[in-house]
Structure prediction request, 381 residues.
Amino acid sequence: MPDLFSPFTLKGVTLRNRIAMSPMTMYRSVDGKMSDFHVMLMGSRAAGGFGLVFPEQIAIVPEGRTSVGCAGIWDDAQMEGLSRVAAIIKDMGAVPAIQLGHTGRKGSEKKPWFGKTQLPPDHPDGWQLRAPSALSYGGRYTYPVEALTIPQIHALHAAYADAARRALACGFEWLEMHFAHGYLGASFLSPLANRRDDAYGGSLENRVRFHLEALDAVRTVWPDSLPLTMRLGSDDFHPDGTQFDDAVWAIGQMREHGLDFADISLGLNTDAMQGVPFNEVGFMVDRAARVRREIGIPVGVSWNLGIPAMADSVIRRELIDVVFLGRPALANPHWPVWAARELAHNDPFSLIPEDWAWWLRSRPGPEGSLGWPPVATTTMG
Prediction:
């Protein structure tokens, strides 16, 4: 029976444990380039014991960013910073992962601490939004949206492939496509955002076409030995939006097009969601478990899994295969070591590089002298 600290192998890649640092946008990039900040952030989490480490969502084109402070991979000049990030993650014992994305009609924003409001297309830090249909998201996203033409859709598929080629050259070994959270891929799947009457809209089969063609494009350059995964907006929690039953079927189709792993998340295609249990621990786990059971594909999930006993339990019960942690990873760079202590792991420091572990094992000192809080639980059951 696996547990949170068991290795996990997918294709030719083995994670040292089932704990992933989820992509979290930092707004620290200039011209889409990563810097020492990103090397520090991702390197410290890899050194802290995470098995799989993602930097933030990486935009495939400039207008695919959330803001001008977000990272990109549309230009060879951006590869140096990304290569440094991948190298430090791997050097610290984790697998370097990359999430490729396009924000669609939820881009062109101010940074959150400046209000996260949308900027008009003519603003120096803004751009024209494009999406499946000429429908603004609403709420704080107020500016007109242009519907993508079919040639523009094909160009985006080529951009995904170009991004994957660069990601491979940078040393990343796990590729995830971000098709959730109201971004471009999620909006193609959702009837709330996709009102097209051509081959990319209308029926479910048409609405998932963008996903399948994107997977096909990436598979032309991404080796079959490396995992190709997707964060999918699987439920809009709205009667007129993406329904989970449809998402399960869609993932089955994606598996036929080379999808190796499904990261199950929310659609977030509207602010008018109904009954989302945001305060419930692990509220997406049961949905992910159904995908794992019915489609036969490995799955991961985030959303409120930062309690070690809960994270361990969903792995032990074989409901999911990998736990994704976003805010907990930002809050505690050594979350895996802390969790191992909480769960009575026989050697918590085995999760970190040996040179660090040696110092922490050799003179443990009195309780509390290493700066750890008292252990709250005593078993891994």
Q: What stands out?
A: The chain has one domain: 8-327. The chain has twelve helices and 13 strands.
